[in-house]
Design goal:
Length: 394
């Protein structure tokens, strides 16, 4: 049996790496299928799938380091999160809103994955917000690289860490995306952008609304996304600036279970997409290149299906969060800001001051206390040499 493939030769992927990639992609696909079944049975509360996006997800994860780099994925990144180390059980606990869901104790929407040890940061549901979060993390990294005393307060900082952020083609029409590109490019921040372009934002086709042509590395995922991701991550890791991978993917299932794509996608388009299915394509390549037999793939699939059934059953046997815990984590499990502890009448002393003076005094104290505190806004750079300087500078 061959140990590398002709198709993947330039990408230097071993047979083991390809089979492991296939396993993660198939696992992701089958978790989606299982979750769709649970949603139809009213045992899961929402379903949005990563189908068609699996190849670029796995290709990117191969070049990133869980618990070292920082991750701001979006809801299509199921295979990406699995490749980083999340488990099917972690995901099913979120689907059913279980109390022991490791992402949020059953509070977040399904597919809003997070993990403190892996460095996957929780996302909010308005699309595109994660892009600014990622740039913020990269900016912090840029700052720590220069301010030693601040870096000492950030034990997880690494001088070559990367912030990964993914988004759909639809989100590229948002202000957040363009603001983030501006700042990341201006500062040469270590951001690895992945635009997963499935050509639709729910029912709106890409040509009607967007033209995302800011492309540094652009590939069709089924063939060479691994190579493109390798180049992009290496560029970012060397602190040369942000890089953007424009991945042409498919979305062969509907947007979510609240949507029926047959209402706006023609049969012809759906059939053309099915031919590009990355899971089926990789399986065909593995067999045609002599890297795996049909029998081996069937065995792998049966093992994955068994693992998924076990994980789903375990999640279904769990408990939803108790109603009396509804306010837990809303602010803090130990501090009640409306308690008597904070019920003090204001005590004035000294001369009355203006709001601007008080902001100034507060910033001065905080910045002296903690070297990680920085000030930024649209006009901060200007104010450092203009007459407004006294408002922000101590
Ligand atoms: C700011 C904002 N606007 C609208 C929505 C509703 N919404 C959820 S997903 C989505 C489509 C996003 O399309 P795209 O960015 O291409 O990602 P895809 O789902 O195709 O992967 C929309 C409009 C939202 N969640 N947030
Ligand atoms: Mg899209």
């Amino acid at each position: 049996m061959a140990t590398t493939s002709q198709v993947f030769e330039t990408q230097k992927l071993s047979r083991d790496a390809l089979l492991s990639a296939y396993r993660t992609m198939y696992l992701s696909r089958r978790i989606d299928d299982k979750e769709i079944q649970l949603k139809r049975q009213n045992r899961a509360f929402f379903q949005i799938n990563g189908v068609g996006h699996e190849a670029v997800n796995v290709a990117c994860a191969m070049h990133l380091k869980p618990g070292y780099d920082w991750f701001f994925p979006y809801y299509r990144d199921r295979a990406f999160c699995l490749a980083l180390g999340m488990t099917p059980l972690d995901m099913f606990l979120g689907s059913v809103g279980d109390e022991s869901d490791p992402c949020s104790g059953g509070r977040q929407m399904p597919s809003h994955w997070s993990s403190k040890p892996l460095h996957i940061v929780s996302q909010s549901s308005p699309t595109g917000t994660q892009i600014l979060h990622a740039v913020g993390a990269a900016e912090a990294s840029w700052y720590y690289a220069q301010i030693q005393e601040a870096a000492e307060l950030a034990p997880s900082f690494h001088a070559d860490e990367v912030a990964y952020v993914s988004l759909g083609d639809g989100a590229t029409s948002e202000g957040e995306f363009w603001e983030s590109l501006n700042w990341a490019s201006n500062r040469k921040l270590p951001v690895f952008y992945v635009v997963e372009d499935n050509a639709y934002a729910i029912s709106v086709p890409v040509e009607m609304a967007r033209d995302p042509r800011v492309v540094v590395f652009s590939e069709d995922v089924a063939d060479s996304s691994h190579e493109a991701a390798a180049k992009a991550v290496a560029y970012v890791r060397k602190r040369q600036g942000p890089a953007l991978l424009h991945a042409h993917v498919i979305r062969p299932y509907s947007h979510s279970l609240s949507d029926d794509e047959r209402l706006y996608k023609s049969e012809e388009v759906r059939q053309a997409e099915a031919k590009r299915d990355p899971v089926a394509r990789l399986a065909r390549t593995l067999v045609s290149e002599g890297l795996a037999t049909e029998k081996e793939l069937k065995e792998l699939q049966a093992a994955v299906d068994l693992e998924i059934r076990g994980a789903a059953d375990k999640a279904l046997a769990g408990e939803p969060p108790k109603p009396e815990k509804i306010s837990l984590y809303l602010y803090s499990p130990i501090v009640d800001p409306s308690s008597e502890l904070f019920d003090h009448p204001a005590k004035s002393h000294g001369e009355p001051k203006t709001m601007v003076d008080l902001i100034h005094a507060c910033l001065k104290v905080e910045m002296a206390r903690d070297p990680r505190v920085v000030v930024f806004s649209e006009d901060v750079a200007d104010s450092s040499h203009e007459s407004e300087l006294h408002k922000v500078k101590g």
